[in-house]
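**Protein fold record**
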Amino acid sequence: MSSETPPRPGTGAEEEPRLAAWRRRTDWPLTALAGLFLACYAVQVLYVSASEGTRAALEAVIWVTWSLFAVDYVTRFTLARRKLAFVLGHPFDLAIVVLPMLRQLRVLRMVAAVTLLNRLLIHSLRQRVALYASGATLLLGLSASLAVLDAERYAPDATITDFPNALWWTLTTITTVGYGDRYPVTSEGRLVAATLMIGGIALLGVVTGLVASWFVRTLSGAEETAEARTVAAVAELRAELAGLRQQLADLTPEQRAALGTGTTGDGREDRASSP
């Protein structure tokens, strides 16, 4: 029997052992890179008074992270035996590589963080879905806030000009409330908004499913508990009835006759049983 940890379903590693080995070596480093990218992008967007040297250093780090993600994708593509199946099975990884030129879409790289965490943490299916929902919501919300602020801040007639407004817009958009007090006016901002709307609908569906599953599981547990108590009570009654039947079966004919005529074993009338 092999001591190697079996691959998880859905990763594609069942038929691609070389890809599985590569993932095991790169999962944690790529997760750290995704976190480093988000930190640098956040500083780049929020720290507007940074010096030219600082901004150049942040931009260099961001491009280095993109380069490493690109190297990872090309390496996995090379290792994959079924090239087309690999490309079709990893659309977000491809988007991370081919869409770095549009500054606001750089946040798509954060999708890799959720995927990597899902592979790194061992949970049941329900826990993994909860991890996806919570992690994707936080990352999507933060990334969208940074991206829309980056796109809108200096645009004419912009309504999203600081980070609190960007967070408020993200909250109302991802929950499909849409007050309309804050909205993007640039093409890049609207592209971010469209991505957030689609992602928000998907996440709301997942969250709704989780809540419904919790209610069903809770009610099912209560019903199972009540049913178990009923079954136990019925079993106890059956045991008592079986005991009574055994006692009756053990009676002598005289004792049975006495029970039938209402007399005691010595032939005297049972006065206690009379009205």
Q: What stands out?
A: Residues 169 and 182 are 6 Å apart (CA to CA). Residues 1-15, 267-275 have pLDDT under 50 and may be disordered. The first helix runs from residue 17 to 46. The radius of gyration is 34 Å.
